[in-house]
Amino acid sequence: MMIVDNLNLGMFSCDRTERCLYPSIQKIPTSSPFPFPDCPQLSQIFSYIDANYCQNIGLNDISQVFGYSPSYLTNLVRRLTGKTLYQWLIDRRMFQARYLLLNTDLPVHQIARSVGYEDAGHFIKHFRQHHALPPKTWREHRN
C-alpha cells in the first residue's frame, strides 16, 4: 500500500502528523496503520480514506475527488475487496476510535469528532453496530 505523508486533494487535505485535531487543537494519538487490502487499483483511494477519515467525508466526496460516480466506485470496491467503500471508511473510523478509547481519557464526543463524526449520537450508533456495546461501556470493559 502506498503511504501518503501529505495528501492534498481539493478541500479535503490532512497532514498525517497533525490530522484529527479536536477543538482544543491538541494532537490526537494515532493508531498503528490500518490494514487496508493490498489492491493496486484502489491504493490511492485507500490512502485518501486513511488521510481524511477524520473529516466529515462520505462516499460522494470520495467519488468526486477521484472522478467516479458513487455507484461505480461502490461496485468497484465491493468487487475487488468484498466490502463497500462506505464499509471501509467506517471500519477505518472504528479502528481509530477503539485505539483512542483504550489509550486516552478523551470523552466519547471528542473521539467522535476526531474520527470524522460531527454527531456523537451517529458515532455511538455505528460503534454499537460494530461492537455490540456503546463506546463508553466498551472502554470500561477493556480497562
Describe the structure.
The N and C termini lie far apart (33 Å). The protein has 7 helices and 2 strands. Strands 1-2 form a two-stranded antiparallel sheet. It is mainly alpha-helical.
Helix/strand order, N-terminal first: EEHHHHHHH
Q: Label the overall shape.
A: elongated
CATH architecture: Orthogonal Bundle
Unreliable sequence segments: 1-26
Helix content: 40-55%
CATH class: Mainly Alpha
Tell me the number of helical segments per DSSP (H or I, 4 or more residues long): 7
Mind describing the biggest β-sheet?
A: 2 strands, antiparallel
Counted up, domains total 1
What is the beta-strand fraction?
A: 5-15%
Radius of gyration: 15 Å
By secondary-structure content and strand pairing, the structural class works out as: mainly alpha
Relevant CATH superfamily: Homeodomain-like
The CATH topology label is: Arc Repressor Mutant, subunit A
